[in-house]
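Support request from a user on the community tier.

User writes: "When I paste my structure tokens into the form, the page sometimes reloads and wipes my input. The last time it worked, I copied everything first. Here is what I submitted, just in case something in the input itself triggers the reload:"
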């Protein structure tokens, strides 16, 4: 866990984000106050975490319980051969800090979302958005969606939907924004 803003001057920070700051209606100052909870450091989670860090959000919670397997390397972009058999969260934080993080406080949590739900709820209470990339199943998806509705925060869901009797795989993504 670190915050690289201590090492980079304020003028440098503005320079990093100047291209996105010229987008009409873009408010970098608002983005720099936001916290995201990312469930899953796999194929979707690695890409999402890179984007969030490069956008300059304030804080990112990364949650996963898994280790890096060789078959992850072709699609999970934060990992290398050196990360095989190592914890995904620790490996992700290491790579993000070294290559992608400009100002974000990254908090890696080696947490099982099913057995340590209370910790997920606490992180969610501190978050402005939740990204669910954990492919455990519909029960967890429903629990995360219910949590977001209860806390009135947006949920972005993505994953791989496999039909057992079909050769077609479907990548899905949904955005759920609770009503005010």
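"...and here is what came back when it finally went through:"
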């Amino acid at each position: 866990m670190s915050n690289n803003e201590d090492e980079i001057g304020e003028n440098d920070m503005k320079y990093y984000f100047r291209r996105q700051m010229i987008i009409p209606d873009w408010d970098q100052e608002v983005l720099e106050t936001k916290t995201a909870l990312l469930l899953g450091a796999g194929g979707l989670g690695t890409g999402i975490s890179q984007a969030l860090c490069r956008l300059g959000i304030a804080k990112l919670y990364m949650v996963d319980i898994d280790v890096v397997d060789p078959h992850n390397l072709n699609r999970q972009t934060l990992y290398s051969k050196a990360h095989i058999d190592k914890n995904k969260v620790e490996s992700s934080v290491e790579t993000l800090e070294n290559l992608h993080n400009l100002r974000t406080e990254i908090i890696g949590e080696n947490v099982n979302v099913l057995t340590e739900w209370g910790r997920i709820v606490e992180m969610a209470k501190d978050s402005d958005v939740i990204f669910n990339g954990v492919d455990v199943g519909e029960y967890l998806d429903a629990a995360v969606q219910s949590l977001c509705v209860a806390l009135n925060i947006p949920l972005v869901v993505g994953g791989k939907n496999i039909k057992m009797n079909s050769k077609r795989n479907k990548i899905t993504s949904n955005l759920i924004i609770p009503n005010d």
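Agent notes: The reload is a front-end session timeout and is unrelated to the input. Residues 162-170 have pLDDT under 50 and may be disordered. The two ends are 33 Å apart (CA to CA). Escalated to web team.
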